[in-house]
Amino acid sequence: MGAQLRVYRQKIKSAQTTKKITRAMELISASRIQKAQARVAASTPYSRAITRAVSAVATYSNVDHVLTTEPETIERAAIVIFSSDRGLAGAFSSQVLREAEELAELLRGQGKEVAYFLVGRKATAYFNFRKRASEKTWTGGTDQPQFESAREIGEVLLESFLRDAGDGGVDEIHLVYNRFVSMVTQTPQVVRLLPLEVVEGVEEPEAGDILPLYEFEPDAATVLDGLLPVYIESRIFNAMLQSAASEHAARQKAMKSASDNADKLITDYTRLANNARQSEITQQISEIVGGADALASAKS
Amino acid sequence: MAAPLNVSVVSADHEVWSGEATQVIARTTEGEIGILAGHEPMLAILGAGEVRVTLPGGDKVHAHAADGFLSVDNNLVMVVASKAELV
């Protein structure tokens, strides 16, 4: 076998094994998207109930609470970046990091210091490689987030929010994550978590509607104290679930195009290998014919 | 009798139970509270304990709920807890 042909055969073999891997990853992701989407859907009643309750307290009571009032000057802002633990998911982690960089640029332009909280190994690696500081990192389990980890993140964030900016606390918290729009689209999303900005599901009371008089048990301030950490947890958990669903969708898409590319490579190299084989045979035939001719002319 | 209560018991990762009921009893931080149809809007912090839901037929559904809150609005009762499960 000629050298040329051997090289092509090697390349075909390598493309085939790569394709086996990418194909398997594609199938795994495809089956996990369903589950991740179901988890997003299952957690919706909870976050909807909490959002309703929070907007009720915010609308119908006039308690001054540290979590709802906007501080006069914001010195430090926190950015929480939700990336993935593993790569091979296309632009999944890079697009969320790019969005975070843009946000950080914007916040610095407003004269705020930026502190980073990182979720997922990819964001951590990105910061380590650039030797940049982060406040805290969480890795592991980004593809199947647990409520406990959301609670842990929520506690840390709340704690640093309640601290003064001088002591290393923050006055503002932003979340950056990939929102699951559909199987083919996942867009990076920036949400301001604190101070509170209840955006979704708030029904503006219509003129003439009588606002219900809410009763708080034990009292409005205690209810707020209890409710807002829960609200933060649920927002973070929701972001993690969305991010997980997006990760699977992004990986499936990336792996699908990788498998398609491998297919194309295999076809191309097979053609080339056939060509090489043909020309090898042709060469051998002409060598034999040439040799036979030479022998025949030598005899006569 | 007024329209029955619409009750949903939700935990962080799924809806535990939902349906119509005539009465809901839950334990708040202040003590047990019973809710019948037509209750005024209310928000309360839940203490750890049992939530008892009486169905229109008289059957009862028991659930464990801890670390959450109870909201009542327009005959819509929501028991929201980070951990909740039927007993």
Structure description:
The complex is a heterodimer of chains A (300) and B (87). With 300 residues, chain A is of the alpha/beta class. Chain A has a domain at 63-202 and 212-250: 3-Layer(aba) Sandwich (Pyruvate Kinase, Chain: A, domain 1), CATH 3.40.1380.10. Chain A is built from five helices and six strands, in the order H-E-H-E-H-E-H-E-E-E-H. Chain A has helices spanning 3-60, 92-109, 121-129, 147-162, 220-299; strands spanning 76-82, 113-119, 136-138, 172-180, 186-194, 215-217. Chain A has a five-stranded mixed beta sheet, sandwiched between helices. In chain A, helix 4 (147-162) packs across helix 5. Chain A is elongated, with a radius of gyration of 30 Å. The two termini of chain A are 35 Å apart. The relative contact order of chain A is 0.18. Chain B has 87 residues and is an all-beta fold. Chain B has one domain (5-86): ATP Synthase, domain 1, CATH 2.60.15.10. Chain B is 0% helix and 71% strand. Chain B contains no helices and eight strands. Chain B has strands spanning 5-11, 15-21, 23-28, 31-36, 42-46, 49-54, 60-73, 76-86. In chain B, strands 1, 2, 3, 4, 5, 6, 7 and 8 form an eight-stranded mixed beta sheet that branches. In chain B, strand 1 (5-11) and strand 2 (15-21) form a beta hairpin. At the A-B interface, helix 1, strand 6 and helix 5 of A face strand 1, strand 5, strand 7 and strand 8 of B. Strand 6 (215-217) of chain A pairs parallel with strand 5 (42-46) of chain B, so a sheet runs across the interface. Chain B: It is an enzyme of class 3 (hydrolase).
Quick structural summary:
With 300 residues, chain A is an alpha/beta fold. Chain A contains five helices and six strands; from the N terminus they run H-E-H-E-H-E-H-E-E-E-H.
